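Complex 735.
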Amino acid sequence: MPNRTVMKDESRTKKQLVCELTELRDKLSEHEALLSERRRLERECETALLKYRCLANAVGEITFEHDVAGNHIIWSGMVREILGYSEDEIGHDVNSWEGKVHPDDIQSANAEYERAAKENQLYDMEYRFRHKDGHYIWFNDRGSMQVDSEGNMHVTGVMKNITDRKSAEEAMNTLSTAVQQSSDWILIADKSGKIEYVNDAVENVTGYTREEILGNTPRILKSGRHDRDFYKKMWDTILSGQTYTGILTNRRKNGELFEVYHTISPIKDKRGAITHFVAASRDITPIRRLEERINFLAFYDDLTGLPNRALFTDRLKQAIVRSEQAEKSSGVFFIDIDRFHMINDTRGASFGDALLKQVARRLSAAVREGDTVARLGSDEYAMALNNISKYEDIIYFLEELRERLSQPVRADGEESLLTFSIGISVYPDDAGDVTTLIQNADLACQEAKQRGGNTYRFFTSGMNTAASEFISMEKRLKDAIKNREFILHYQPYWDCMTKKMTGMEALIRWNSRDQGLISPGKFIPVLEETGMIVEVGEWVFRSAIRQVKEWQDKGYPVVPVSVNLSIVQFRQKNLVGMINNILEETGLAPRLLTAEITESGLMEDTEFARTALKELRDRGISISIDDFGTGYSSLSYIKKLPVDNLKIDMSFIHELGKDPYAKAIVSAIITMAAALNLHTIAEGVETEEQWEVLKQLNCQTTQGYYFARPLPAEDFEKLLARQVNVPDAALGATD
Ligand code: C2E
Ligand code: MG
Ligand code: MG
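Predicted structure with C2E bound:
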């Protein structure tokens, strides 16, 4: 084959050959030029690639090129550094990439790829990619898609390690969620005080919505409970760059007040200038409530709300101190429901609880302000009574209490009758300290229990007799009122100098069916304790006034009648009205009536007494202070009262002639009374000697057995009839 070609060539012309040769040479040089151009381009390409790789490595991120059609990925060298894989380990196809993307992120990553491929655009996504050692690294993968001249897709991308940013973001997210959802409230205001941020708690606590708060200042929560000084101190602290902590009272949208523990700090920029304020605060209303509840449970019984033993002991201690100062007594009642355990066992605890609560209410209703009722144990209650002047107070209280407790109680719609054992001890007679007082009341209560319950015992047995006497007296007095067993005796007052009768005192007696005449000292205290004195007192006024009017109408030279008034009568609603009515009924002139009130009674209730005395005085009725000298009233106090006469207590008169001090005292009283423009009456004058001394001391009026005993009306009438100025001796005592 080659030989034949040569022969053919030989047949060609030389010109043709030259032409061909020139053509060949041109082609060759053209080829060479193309070759060198290609080499140049290849070199350029290589350089560009080298530069690109250098650049990629220098950028410090992973770069890759993905020939989609060939399913081949070329990774940059940073793969090893960032992900720990060699080029072979990381793999060069899409499956090996997919296999390392976090399963939770693969779907969104693929979707973004597809979107960018479809739109022939840049893609941008974030996903986690597995490091060789197994942990995941967050990447931002950004790249572009390009289609070459042959229609093949090429992807070039940069995977940027964003783990730090992601962790920061996550931390920030956690932080902001924590702030947003914190039960403490967070409020951020700019430096002018305008609120820029509030978390959910602010909305919950204040009742304002976020929209209502933002743009406002914290003044919308102002309670008006703090003064200017308070806010000034707060702002001085914050503006000086310090954190302010303190409790503030704020107002909710609905007007309710609530307490907040505030920590307000300034936020500063890099230069140290304050840009914002942040308040981290806590609504302490629930804490306050909890505190109150804890305090309550420490000192109160949860079921009944009554003080518990600790508080009772404390209150009793205080009561004792007060009693000591006022020279009065205190009483401790220990009250136990009889057979309560049986009721509880058979009827169930909730029935028992209902009973216990009712008993608590009943006991509380029985005491006066300042007294204490407590629940000491399951069915044990205690009471501390203060300010007791006499044992009758306790006995009367006991009677009233037993009456209250004897009423049926209701539980589960059913009425039951409870009985109680009550033990009583009295300070200072039965013990000088709280523990022993309670113990003694408890012992007395146990004794009452041993007697079968439904009864009371005093720690001091003598008191039991006194109590039963009091109680029987009360019943008998009720009958006495009904049966009109009271009468009045009259005892005259004499002028010390002229020995003329200047007045008389009406004195009550109880003409008892079974015991004869009983003196007022025995029954007046029971009448006072039970309040019956009001009814009996009215009877005394009416009888005395009618009697004097009768004597006046008979033409006797009548003198004013003095009627004794107990302080309890001053507390009755219409004392003055009652006396007025009787005066009007009978037509007796008010100047013929004098009201006597004891000095100690006046001291007991000064305000009441002063008002009532003034009203009586305004009506033209005279006022005497009885038993003067026993009640420690001061001169300045007496001066303020509308008083006409001072009746010097008989204990001083009886000592006249025996005790020089008594004379000095009586003399001082008379002088003092004269200085105050008061008339003096000496009561209980029994001897001539006493009368002589009184005369010498310039006492104006006397009363006593020496001149006349209290007399029944008919005997007194005889005295009036005889119009005897000076009785020669005592005029036949009747009691
Ligand atoms: P009082 O008002 O100080 O009355 C004087 C008392 O002294 C009377 O006792 C009288 O009998 C007694 N008395 C008079 N002269 C002598 C005397 O020379 N020697 C002695 N040892 N006693 C004398 P009475 O009648 O037993 O009354 C006692 C107290 O009972 C009265 O003291 C008065 O506070 C009170 N009282 C009497 N009647 C009433 C009344 O109607 N209402 C009220 N609330 N109290 C009354
Ligand atoms: Mg009197
Ligand atoms: Mg008197």
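Residues 505, 564, 596, 626 surround magnesium ion (ligand 2) (CB under 6 Å).
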